[in-house]
Amino acid sequence: MKADSIAPSPAGWTPLFGAWLVAASSMLGALFLGEVMELPPCVLCWWQRIAMFPLVLILPAGMFPLDRSVIRYALPLTLAGWLVALFHVLLVAGVIPERIQPCSRGVSCKEIQIEWFGFLTIPTLSLIAFTLIAGLLLFAQHRMSR
Amino acid sequence: MNQKYIFAIAAALMVAIFATATLVHDSEKGNRRDEVAEQNRAILVREHSPTLGEAEARVHIVEFLDPACETCRDFYPYVKQLMAAAPGRIRVSVRYAPFHDGSEQIVKLLAAAKLQGKFWETLEALFAAQPNWASHHNPQPDMVWNFINGVGLDIEKLKVDMASPAIDAIVRQDLADARTLNVTKTPEFFVNGRPMPSFGYEQLKQLVAEELNSRY
């Protein structure tokens, strides 16, 4: 890729870029809620941050230059975060009983701190973000394997 | 359009949005804090609050503090310096904000010491020994007795007072006022009713300087 070319993006670059956009906005969103609005993150939120924040650095490393392996590195983190987010959403919804929740100190994971449009809570946003990232990574995989 | 440029522009945009949102949020928060303090001037100080300095001093610092809080300990000599730099013009009142688990006992001890007229001596003794009884935000109320020996308190009376409903009411009152004034962290300062715009030594100094200039 020469700096002055106007060629279309190589196969798979755009979905990777999309995944990075989702990860970066999620990270900035989490930092805004936590550091600026000073809503304390609960334990489950911390686990999701651990999965989300590294993606913001790992994905660009595999986009410049384009490197297929980045999907193999990013997917496990994404799936781990997705599982925690799903657990969190189910816990808040009451599907999973409270007694098996891992939070004892600080903020309760069941506490709903924000709710936009009547359904968007922080865990819901997280689940949507991880789902999008996973989908985009799989799509990039599909585009690059042709 | 090169991918690197697309990426760089996207990253710059996101950072810019984040920074703008932060600035907007903080300025709104600052305005809200000013309003809350303005509306609740009457409860900044209570009858029971320990006060240091001349009664006619025109600059009044109200500090919400927790004796187990390390930053409060660091600020203490600094507040004293501010007072010394403007003799007779500044007075300080203390409000109890026992936010650490275990601080409440210590605050009751301070309130009981005030009944014996030894609030400030006790506070200083507690701050001096703080690393021994409250390291790492983990106050051990049972450990403080050795450290306040030198203050000359009547310990028997102190223990009786600490358990009294009157002292308990003082602590409840201060905690309730802290909630009303949106005080969630210690130390928190109000200078003639004005909260600090942001946290720091310099901000406090600035606020005190402004009030000194406008009152004298």
TrEMBL record, chain A:
Task: Indicate the transmembrane segments per the record.
Answer: 12-34, 46-66, 73-96, 116-140
Membrane topology label: Multi-pass membrane protein
**Where does this protein reside within or beyond the cell?**
Membrane
| Pfam families named among the record's database cross-references | DsbB (PF02600)
This protein's superkingdom? Bacteria
What UniProt keywords are attached to this protein's entry? Chaperone, Disulfide bond, Electron transport, Membrane, Oxidoreductase, Redox-active center, Transmembrane, Transmembrane helix, Transport
Q: Which family does it belong to?
A: Belongs to the DsbB family. BdbC subfamily.
**Protein name, per record:** Disulfide bond formation protein B
Which source organism? Aromatoleum petrolei
From TrEMBL, chain B:
Q: Where is the Thioredoxin domain?
A: 12-213
Q: Which UniProt keywords apply?
A: Disulfide bond, Membrane, Oxidoreductase, Redox-active center, Signal, Transmembrane, Transmembrane helix
Keyword Membrane listed = yes
The UniProt entry, under Pfam families, shows: Thioredoxin_4
**What are the transmembrane regions?**
6-24
InterPro entries attached to this UniProt entry: Thioredoxin-like_fold (IPR012336), Thioredoxin-like_sf (IPR036249), Thioredoxin_domain (IPR013766)
Query: Hey, which family's this protein in?
Result: Belongs to the thioredoxin family. DsbA subfamily.
- What is this protein called in UniProt? Thioredoxin domain-containing protein
Q: Which organism is it from?
A: Aromatoleum petrolei
